[in-house]
Every structure is written in C-alpha cells, then in structure tokens.
Design goal:
Blueprint: H1 7-10, E1 16-17, H2 27-34, H3 41-53, H4 71-76, H5 81-86, E2 91-92, H6 138-154, E3 159-164, E4 169-176, H7 178-195, H8 208-214, H9 216-238, E5 248-253, E6 260-267, E7 281-284, H10 291-304, E8 307-310, E9 320-330, E10 337-345, H11 353-359, E11 367-373, E12 387-401, H12 407-412, H13 418-451, H14 459-479, H15 491-519, H16 525-539, H17 543-552, H18 556-574, E13 577-580
Parallel strand pairs: 7-13
Antiparallel strand pairs: 1-2, 3-4, 4-6, 5-6, 8-12, 9-10, 9-12, 11-12
Helix pairs in contact: 7-9, 10-13, 13-15, 13-18, 14-15, 15-18, 16-17
C-alpha cells in the first residue's frame, strides 16, 4: 500500500496522489465529499487500511484498483469548503480536456438524457455492480466519456419543415421538444455557474438551482437563440438552401414546459428555365434624322460655347445671370439664413418667381428686401409652408452671348466650313440613333423572352433596385447643393411610381442569369482585365488602381456578374430576327 512513486509513474496523466495531507476517516465528512449517502460495500472493506494511514504526516497514496471507481468524483471535488475543514484535498492532473462538474452538480445525472447512465461509472460507463479489472486502461475511459458526450448531443432532435409561400419565399418551421429546451438551459446554467458572481457564494460555487432562479429568463432566451441558430445552420447544410438575405424569425411560441415553435422566413432565387430564347422576332422602328434635328444640335453647340459678359451699367432684365448675397429670416423664428455668391437666372423657370419679380430693374450694388412664401409641399423641408423675409445685395450682373452660326464658329469647332460642320453633326446624330436603336432592339428581344415566362421576383432584389434609384436622386440633388435629408420628398410615392421599372429590371437580370447558366457563358480574366482598362481610360487611372479599388469595395464579383449578363444579352441579340419599322 505504501511506496514511493518513480518519476515515470508520477508523469502518468491519470496518476492520483496526495502530498502532505491526511485522509479523513470521519464517516459523515467523507460521505459528503464522495457524494454517497452510505459507503459502498467494497469501500467499507478497505476502510480499516485507510484508517491506518490517517495519522501519517506525509505520504503518497496510490489508489486501490477498486478505489479508481470514485476517482472522477474525487477529482471533481472542489478544493476548500468541507474538504478543507475535513483535511481532505486530493489533487490530480486534468486529462479530460473539459471542465468536470463540481460535486454539488452530480444531481444533473437525473436528467432524462442521462438517466440511463445513472448507475454506470461516470467515466467509462461500465456497470458499477460488476467487478473491475485492476489492469483496465484509463485511456478507454477518456474515449468513452467523449462517446457519451456525442451520444447526448445526438439526442438533440429538431423537427424542421420547409414550406413554400411562393417560388421565391420560403418558411422554415421548427418545433423543439420541451425536454430539449430544458437540457439546453441546464447546459447554459453550468456555463453561467462558472462565471456568475452571486452574493454569499464564491465564484464557481453557485448551485444550479440558484443560477436558474436568478437568471431564468436570460438562460431561456439564450437557449432559444442558440437553438434558432442551430436549426438555421442545420437547414442550410441538409436542405441545400441558398438564401438571398438574412432570415427573419417570426411566430415565436415560447412557453415553459411546452415545445419551442418558431418560423424562419427567407427568400431564394426562383427556379427559372428559359425556353425559346433563340430566333426571337422583334420589330424596332428606325429613327430618321431630319434638318430640324441638325439645327437643334447646332443650337446646343452655341449654348455650350456661350460667353458671359459683365453688364455693370445696365438694369437687371430677364436672362441676366445675377450673383447675390442673401440674408433671410423665417417668420415666426428660426435660424437665420446667410449665403454668399448665390447665382440665379432672372426669369428662368428654375428661379423662384418672387425673386425674379423683385430683381428686375435693380442695378449693381443695390440692396432689395422682399418676402417669399413657400408652398407646403416645397421640396426643402426647412422652407415648406413658411414665409421668409429676404434682404439681397446685387454683387454681379452678366449677360450670356451666343456665338453667331457662321464660318468662324465652324472653324473654332474644327470644321473648315459651316456645311462641313452640319455634315459632321448629322453623322454624329446618325451614329447616336443607331446606338439608340440597337439598345432598344436588345431590350425588345429580352422583354419578348420575359413575356413568355411568368415567375415571382424576390422582394429583396426589388428593394435593392429602389434603393439604387433613391441614391441616384440624392446624388443629383447633391450636385445642385441640396441636402436630400432636408427635402420634403415623399419617398413612398417615389417608390410606388418606380416599382414597375424595378420589378422589370430584376426580371431581366434573372432571365439573363438563367440564359448564361444554360449556355455556359462565363467571363474570363482577360475579358475582366479589358473592361477594367476601359474604365481606367475614362477615370485617368491605371487598370491596376481601378481593380484594387473594386476589390477594396468588394465590387469585383458584382462587376463580373454584370459582364456575364451582358454576354447573355449579346447572345440572344445575335440570335434574334430583328426588322426595322
């Protein structure tokens, strides 16, 4: 019984020993430490031998083969408390790879999932009523303990059912038994117990009953969240789901003692198989170029090359470009306005009528005051429905002079004569008309194919199109110096008006994706690099810099998909029968 261990024996990860301690033989203390109501019969046989060792001041004890049965329970005993007062402190290296439960947690073995293991060895699962072999290797206990854990995890049963709301809207209906919820709560309670700080208990010594009482709602909420995430992960792995956006949880039914029920709603791409997309017959009307179109284009060129001449001695009249210093005060109070170098065109449709009326006849340097009442639906919320008293000072007056349409004007634009300029403008108009006709033809072919296929469109993709339209509106307003957040735009009406176009854009995208898939169309790295070079030329950057920016913004894949759709559109356009009207 008493011997000194060798270095090899002491290095064994499962070697249990005590140093400079005594083993209490008090029946009640040892009973409480081991977690038994009474001593087992086999332990009573050895008690006399153990009693003889209790007076030794220092010794090393190798447990008896039969005593190994309770080794895990001794290992699970926390240091201090009753054990410290009783003089029992058993130390061992931890070889499990996970934290063992404390002594007062052993009642968890009465849970239904572990009830069948209640009468078995807590490590290897062997029946305690059967004899133990002294030479049994503890490594088997380690393997069986993990097998026990895996077997308990496999008992988790999630009832998953996929219901089709539409071709692109799915519902994952989940029902979890109440027993599973309780097991999940118990598992989380043990995690809480390791870290929770409760008055009257040392960290890690709080009983599970106290943990459940104090943190009951949090435990059940965390358990519900864990099960929702687990069910969604399992559905993705086993049902081959490809959601477009993050799912939403609804119809959550969570009552203690009742099964947990909830529904996970998500969108997927509708299954599309495009047919008869080759040889599509469409008629596109031609766009003739007439002399009136040429004259209109020449006038646009005169506007582009106009000069603004100062008019210091003349009175302001319609068409004058006036630069002002503007101060304004809101009727009824509010933050006053002050802006320098505000330019407006007197009499223009974009200029407030009251401003034009009060600026006519004014001279350079003159100051004028007037009130402006804004309608309730004015696009800038700060001014909507309010009256503002303005005080303006004229800083500059200019008049736009258009160049005469003559030979000199033609030479300035690179033509030798005016007739040559007209011919050049006509050629440009014809080229633009051909591009417009080709664009309309491509859209007509695609729309003809879409009309033959009816399918639902995911609401999330339609929403993305509407958001993109809203961003374009905000960008246009920002270029005019208007903050979109300060406007009174009714976005609901804007989206209602834009929805048909957004839905059609999504349908076009889905059909082109399907055609590209069916035809095996892909975008090569060379084609992608060519497109980056085209973008770089227009941005005065290198293709490498443009591509790096796309990679940084995570836009490369979207750009590749856009090019892939264009290849599909080119394919159906080349294979279509198009006639001019």
């Amino acid at each position: 019984m008493l011997r000194r261990f060798s270095t090899k024996e002491r290095s064994h990860p499962w070697q249990l020993m005590t140093d400079h301690c005594s083993l209490a033989t008090d029946h009640s203390c040892l009973t409480r430490r081991l977690g038994f109501a009474t001593f087992p019969a086999w332990f009573a046989d050895e008690r006399s031998e153990l009693s003889s060792l209790s007076t030794a001041p220092a010794f090393r004890l190798q447990f008896l083969p039969e005593f190994r049965k309770i080794a895990p329970r001794l290992d699970n005993c926390e240091s201090g408390g009753i054990g410290r007062r009783a003089g029992l402190r058993i130390q061992s290296r931890k070889g499990w790879g996970f934290n063992s439960p404390l002594s007062h947690h052993m009642s968890s073995l009465t849970r239904p999932a572990e009830r069948e293991f209640r009468d078995r060895h807590p490590i290897c699962g062997r029946d305690r009523s059967k004899s133990d072999s002294p030479t049994r290797k503890l490594g088997a206990c380690h393997r069986v303990s993990w097998a026990l854990k895996e077997q308990m995890e496999q008992k988790t049963k999630l009832n998953l059912e996929i219901k089709d709301v539409s071709s692109c809207q799915k519902n994952l209906v989940v029902e979890v038994p109440a027993e599973e919820i309780d097991q999940e709560v118990d598992k989380l309670a043990r995690e809480y117990a390791r870290r929770a700080k409760v008055p009257g208990f040392r960290p890690g010594k709080v009983p599970l009953s106290i943990i459940k009482q104090r943190f009951g709602s949090e435990l059940r909420g965390d358990a519900t969240q864990d099960i929702i995430q687990r069910s969604w992960k399992e559905a993705l792995e086993t049902r081959d789901l490809h959601p477009l956006t993050k799912p939403t949880v609804k119809d959550l039914q969570e009552q203690p003692g009742s099964p947990l029920k909830f529904t996970v709603s998500f969108e997927v791409l509708p299954p599309i198989e495009v047919k008869d997309y080759k040889g599509v017959v469409v008629t596109v009307p031609s766009i003739p170029i007439e002399d009136a179109d040429i004259d209109k284009a020449l006038e646009a060129l005169r506007e582009q090359h106009a000069q603004f001449v100062p008019c210091e001695s003349s009175d302001i009249k319609d068409g004058h470009y006036v630069t002002l210093t503007v101060d304004g005060e809101f009727e009824g109070g509010g933050k006053p306005l002050h802006e320098d170098d505000v330019t407006c065109v007197v009499g223009d449709s974009q200029t407030n009528q009251t401003f034009s009326d009060n600026l006519r006849g004014a001279k350079l340097g003159e100051a004028r005051s007037f009130d402006v009442s804004y309608p309730a639906d004015y696009h800038r919320k700060r001014f909507a429905g309010k009256t503002v008293h303005y005080a303006v000072t004229i800083k500059d007056i200019k008049e736009k002079h258009l160049a005469e349409l003559n030979e000199e004007f033609a030479e300035d634009l690179g033509a030798k004569t005016l007739e040559e300029l007209r011919n050049k403008v006509k050629d440009d108009l014809i080229t633009n008309a051909k591009r417009t006709a080709e664009k309309k033809s491509r859209e007509a072919v695609l729309d003809a194919i879409i009309q033959r296929h009816a399918f639902d469109v995911p609401e999330s993709l339609v929403g993305d199109e509407l958001e993109e339209h809203a961003r374009r509106i905000a960008t246009d307003l920002a270029r005019q110096g208007i903050d979109v957040n300060k406007t009174s735009i009714d976005w609901k009406k804007v989206f209602e008006k834009e929805r048909p176009r957004a839905e059609q854009a999504v349908r076009r995208s889905l059909v082109l994706d399907a055609i590209a898939r069916q035809e095996g169309l892909e975008v090569t790295e060379e084609e992608l690099e060519t497109e980056f070079q085209k973008l770089a030329e227009g941005m005065n950057k290198s293709s490498a810099a443009v591509r790096a920016q796309f990679e940084k913004d995570k836009r490369t894949q979207g750009f590749r998909e856009h090019l892939r759709q264009n290849k599909a559109l080119d394919f159906i356009y080349r294979n279509a029968n198009i006639s001019g009207g």
